[in-house]
């Protein structure tokens, strides 16, 4: 499926394919919820398709039938065996063995690894040989929302396709065109997802919207010296600490934009009034330091974390910079 905000990436890929200029390895990077994996799988089917129509797979030919049934012999989708776990070295080795075989249909052999940042160091090193000496007509697509965590040796051997969030109006229009019943504020959902429409759509079925409101209330109260920084309860963090840290990072990023006179491009438009008040309480240098700390925590999110301890430390630091 091609989304309105991925048209340029899609047309560029199709043009490369038509001119036989596709590289042996691509990295699709960008925020979660922008359709990177869907674009990768659509490209795979398009390259396999025997009779593409209007830059799309026909869904009628034998190759499309095999692809849709999950039985195409030249296609591999490598994912963690369990959600949140690592991609094992045995999975990569099996993929490399498969690459050594001849193509069944005289087309590309395609592998999609998602999320690529789930590979541990051994898995990544195992993949390197295929990136350095790729078999003919082979395409490897690495999909990641955490590009900075991939080894430099991997990144340097791939061509990069970046996926950016759509403009606010395009995202709101697309979300409003989806068939769902919701009492949520669409702008708030979009802000919670950092402008990524698919992430916003998936959050409709969760209780994250309510949690975001609770965390923001605490964030404001602590920043205005109205509440203890240790006021978040462990039961509020039962789903982990990653989402709350991402929200705080987004709020801090908006505060930085306000301090440098770029309030018109903030993400959390539903929190504009409260953020304007907080912006008067904190210095720009403190915001930059806090932003770096949040990024470091997010980079560690695959490791086991004590959610309560992590959030307590971040709120204590937030109290320190807002009371400086």
Give a written overview of the molecule.
With 324 residues, this protein is α/β, with parallel strands linked by helices. The protein folds into two domains: 4-163, Rossmann fold (3-Layer(aba) Sandwich); 207-322, Up-down Bundle (Zinc Finger, Delta Prime, domain 3). 48% of the residues lie in helices and 8% in strands. It contains 14 helices and five strands. It has helices spanning 7-18, 36-48, 62-69, 89-99, 121-132, 152-155, 168-176, 186-192, 197-203, 208-223, 242-259, 272-279, 284-299, 307-322, and strands at 25-30, 75-78, 109-113, 138-144, 159-163. Strands 2-3-4-1-5 form a five-stranded parallel sheet, sandwiched between helices. The longest helix is centred in the C-terminal third of the chain and has 18 residues, at 242-259.
Give the tags.
Rossmann fold; 5 strands; elongated; 324 residues; Zinc Finger, Delta Prime, domain 3; 2 domains; 8% strand; 5-stranded parallel β-sheet; 48% helix; alpha/beta
Question: Could you say what the CATH architecture of the largest domain is?
Answer: 3-Layer(aba) Sandwich
Principal-axes geometry comes out as elongated
- Strand count, sense and closure of the main sheet? 5 strands, parallel
Low-pLDDT segments: none
- Secondary-structure content class: alpha/beta
How many DSSP-defined strands? 5
**First-residue to last-residue Cα separation:** 50 Å
CATH superfamily of the largest domain: P-loop containing nucleotide triphosphate hydrolases
Question: Measured on Cα atoms, how large is the radius of gyration?
Answer: 22 Å
Q: What is the number of helical segments per DSSP (H or I, 4+ residues)?
A: 14
Listing every helix as H and every strand as E from the N terminus to the C terminus, the arrangement reads HEHHEHEHEHEHHHHHHHH
Helix content: 40-55%
- How large is the share of residues in beta strands? 5-15%
Q: What do the pLDDT scores average to?
A: 88
**Tell me, what is the CATH class of the largest domain?**
Alpha Beta
CATH topology of the largest domain: Rossmann fold
Number of domains: 2
Spatial arrangement of strands, main beta sheet:
2-3-4-1-5
């Amino acid at each position: 499926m091609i989304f309105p905000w991925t048209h340029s990436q899609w047309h560029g890929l199709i043009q490369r394919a038509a001119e036989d200029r596709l590289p042996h390895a691509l990295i699709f990077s960008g925020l979660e919820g922008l359709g990177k994996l869907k674009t990768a799988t659509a490209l795979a089917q398009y390259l396999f398709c025997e009779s593409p129509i209007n830059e799309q797979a026909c869904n009628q030919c034998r190759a499309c039938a095999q692809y849709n049934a999950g039985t195409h012999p030249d296609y591999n989708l490598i994912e963690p065996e369990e959600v949140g776990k690592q991609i094992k070295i045995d999975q990569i080795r099996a993929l490399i063995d498969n690459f050594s075989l001849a193509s069944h249909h005289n087309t590309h052999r395609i592998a999609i690894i998602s999320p690529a940042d789930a590979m541990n160091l051994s898995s990544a090193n195992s993949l390197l040989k295929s990136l350095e000496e790729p078999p003919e007509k082979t395409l490897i697509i690495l999909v990641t929302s955490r590009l900075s965590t991939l080894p430099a040796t991997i990144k340097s051997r791939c061509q990069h396709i970046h996926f950016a969030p759509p403009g606010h109006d395009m995202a709101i229009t697309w979300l409003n065109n989806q068939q769902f019943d919701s009492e949520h504020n669409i702008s708030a959902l979009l802000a919670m997802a950092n402008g990524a429409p698919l992430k916003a759509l998936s959050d409709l079925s969760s209780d994250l919207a309510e949690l975001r409101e609770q965390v923001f209330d605490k964030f404001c109260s602590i920043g205005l010296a109205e509440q203890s920084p240790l006021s978040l309860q462990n039961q509020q963090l039962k789903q982990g600490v990653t989402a709350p840290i991402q929200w705080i990072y987004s709020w801090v990023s908006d505060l930085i934009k306000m301090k440098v006179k770029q309030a018109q491009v903030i993400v959390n438009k539903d929190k504009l009034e409260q953020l304007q008040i907080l912006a008067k309480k904190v210095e720009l240098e403190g915001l930059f330091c806090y932003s770096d700390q949040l990024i470091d925590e997010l980079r560690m999110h695959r490791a086991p974390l004590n959610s309560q301890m992590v959030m307590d430390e971040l709120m204590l630091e937030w109290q320190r910079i807002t009371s400086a």
